[in-house]
UniProtKB/TrEMBL annotation:
Domain of life according to the entry: Bacteria
Enzyme class label: hydrolase
MF GO annotations: damaged DNA binding; DNA-(apurinic or apyrimidinic site) endonuclease activity; lyase activity; oxidized purine nucleobase lesion DNA N-glycosylase activity; zinc ion binding
Keyword Plastid belongs to the record: no
Pfam (any one): H2TH
Source organism of this protein record: Runella slithyformis (strain ATCC 29530 / DSM 19594 / LMG 11500 / NCIMB 11436 / LSU 4)
Biological process per Gene Ontology, one example term: base-excision repair
Reactions listed under catalytic activity: Hydrolysis of DNA containing ring-opened 7-methylguanine residues, releasing 2,6-diamino-4-hydroxy-5-(N-methyl)formamidopyrimidine
The family this protein is said to belong to: Belongs to the FPG family.
Residues in Formamidopyrimidine-DNA glycosylase catalytic domain copies: 2-114
Protein name: DNA-formamidopyrimidine glycosylase
Length: 271
């Protein structure tokens, strides 16, 4: 599913294509994808223009010049596609914003898990949904507080969006590998130095993923993602598949908090 790096790529794409153009119409193929009823959505947005964006975790917020804020959640497979009206409507573009410029923005919803609607306030929405600060904005002090108040394994704690927003399953595995923390380490027993390593690794992994527009095959070879079972990378020798980047052992797989987890038993020792 789209994770923070993908959604940040979508945010930048949206800003590069869809700002400052009057909205002439909104075409909705499946109204079940709306969190705001269609009549209200069109009444509030038609004639307005999008002026700026904000991303918090996996949530994309779009501000307009007239007041209402649009919220996009990309579900499992959501995406955006900007195209001219002379071209065919993209496949699975179930919601389309029609601009006066002659261009359209399609909200791609292949599996219909995606959602779009209006919200009154970004801050109020985040508070209601108990979404913590974004993983690229959270301070080490905030992260420390959120980790220390939990008595669970660090893997599910980091996946909880009320701890830190925007990091999903593969990202948490990568962060813990880069920080050399075992996924079954108890969150409340982490030392200050270990939390600092998690904080730094989170920024490193996310900034790397954003830099490469979430193209995993281009990530540095010291990333665990190249050894994950589902990753078949054309950039590496198939014979190294599932071997830890430390080149000492094969990576291990287990369930932690109900999620498939990959780690290195040599680099991530449970203390």
């Amino acid at each position: 599913m789209p994770e923070l790096p993908e959604v940040e790529t979508y945010r930048r794409y949206f800003e590069a294509t869809s700002l400052h153009q009057p909205i002439e119409a909104i075409e909705v193929e499946d109204r079940k994808l709306l969190t705001t009823d269609y009549a209200t959505l069109t009444e509030m947005l038609i004639g307005q223009t999008f002026v700026s964006t904000k991303r918090v975790g996996k949530n994309l917020f779009i501000y307009t010049d007239g007041g209402p804020t649009l919220h996009m959640h990309f579900g499992m497979t959501g995406d955006l596609e900007y195209y001219h009206s002379s071209l065919d409507r993209p496949r699975h573009a179930r919601i389309v914003f029609v601009f006066a410029s002659g261009f359209h923005l399609g909200f791609i919803c292949p599996r219909k898990f995606e959602r779009i609607g209006l919200i009154e306030s970004v801050d109020a929405y985040l508070k209601k949904k108990k979404i913590a600060p974004d993983a690229l904005d959270i301070s080490v002090e905030e992260l420390t507080y959120n980790l220390r108040k939990r008595k669970s394994f660090i893997k599910p704690v980091l996946l909880d969006q009320s701890t830190v927003a925007g990091i999903g399953n593969w990202i948490v595995d990568e962060v813990l590998f880069q920080a050399k923390i075992h996924p079954e380490t108890l969150s409340n027993r982490l030392t200050d130095e270990e939390i600092e390593r998690i904080f730094s690794a989170t920024r490193y992994v996310l900034e790397t993923a954003i830099e490469h527009e979430a193209n995993y095959g281009r990530f540095p070879q010291q990333f665990l993602i190249h050894s994950r079972e589902w990753d078949v990378s054309p950039y590496e020798d198939a014979g190294r598949h599932k071997r830890c980047p430390c080149d000492k052992v094969e990576i291990a797989q287990m369930q932690v908090g109900g999620r498939t987890t990959y780690y290195c038993p040599e680099c991530q020792v449970l203390r």
